[in-house]
Amino acid sequence: MRYRWYEYSIYPITFIGLGLALAIVGVGVVTATIIITIAGAMTHPFRSIKNLVVSLTIVALIGASVFWHFYTSEVEIANQSVSVTITKDMSFASLTDSLTQLGVIENPAFFKACARIRGIDKRLWVGRYDFSGNVSVRSVLNTLGSGAVAMLSVTIPEGLRVEQTAGILANKLDLDSAAIVAQAFDTSFCEDRYSLPNLEGYLFPETYRFPVGVSLLEVLDKMVADAKQAIESELKGAELSEDGLNHSEIVTLASVIEAEARKVEEHGLISGVYHNRLRKGMLMQADPTVRYGLRVFTRKLYFKDLDKDTPYNTYMYKGLPPGPINSPGLSAIRAAIRPLESSYFYFVADGSGGHVFSETLKEHNKANRRIKSERKKLKR
Questions:
Q1: pTM for the full predicted model
Q2: pLDDT tens, 64-93?
Q3: pLDDT at residue 194 above 80?
Q4: DSSP characters over 269-327
Q5: What is 74-146's CATH superfamily?
């Protein structure tokens, strides 16, 4: 007897249907058993230990569900971010009032209880906290508990003088630029706090993230610490040259290298030239040091400027200038410690951001004449 094609599917479908039916019945039986047990336990909670345990478990589950609902339920703040600032002497009650007024939390009592359970009411981090979008008691406490204060980013480029750095810090961190400069050149303050005569050369160029409301001292401490750390890290394992420069001299030379070189790849060569000249007892003849001594930073430097007597005039005085003329970056510091060995004693700007290096004064003068001639041709 032959079957049609669709008749072959009747048996497996039948077995699957029976299996599903049995499964549904089984779930129903289990569910009914649980409901009956719960009903019995709740009707006579203290009749037996079993009923008591079941009753307490049910109450605990209901309580946990209610707690979790209020703990994680989100409140929608206004489209704009709202902020609260925690000060050093602020109490948690005052903080709760501020958050309630801002609409960040809806139930102050519940919020305080949760904070007390987590211990956050006893460890508040000073700073500004920003809240936006949808927030819950849980997310707010996580923010407060982790000290996730609002941060500001500020980038200090390489080769800036104190007053230039002060301008950026004042603009980005809402500090007083005049106060920064005054503090940086307060000799007694710098000696006592940093063992430095002043902070020229030690406001390390880097991208920093500071909390909103950061103090001037905190900023200076961080920048000076980073500058000293950069020097120490480069000195580790370095084979110092016979010049034997100390920390202050390294920063001073690095600042001159930073001022001279527009191309980072020339740092090593320029450092090598200065090391060679210092070893030979030659004048450094570095234009940036003359500019710094005269406080001339925008106009062209004239030959008559080279005859003006300042401690920073390296056309008049041998050796390094009295101190740094800017805050050098890591590459310049590295170059000052590890100069690129060469037989060069001279270099001149080539007009394109680089330099032409020469071994003798004759070669140097020739290169200088050629560059000037090329510049004149370009002007025609």
A1: 0.75
A2: 676 676 677 788 876 778 888 888 889 999
A3: yes
A4: HHHHHHHHHHHHT-----HHHHHHHHT--SSPPPGGGGGS--TT-TTTS-SS-SS-SSB
A5: Endolytic murein transglycosylase (3.30.1490.480)
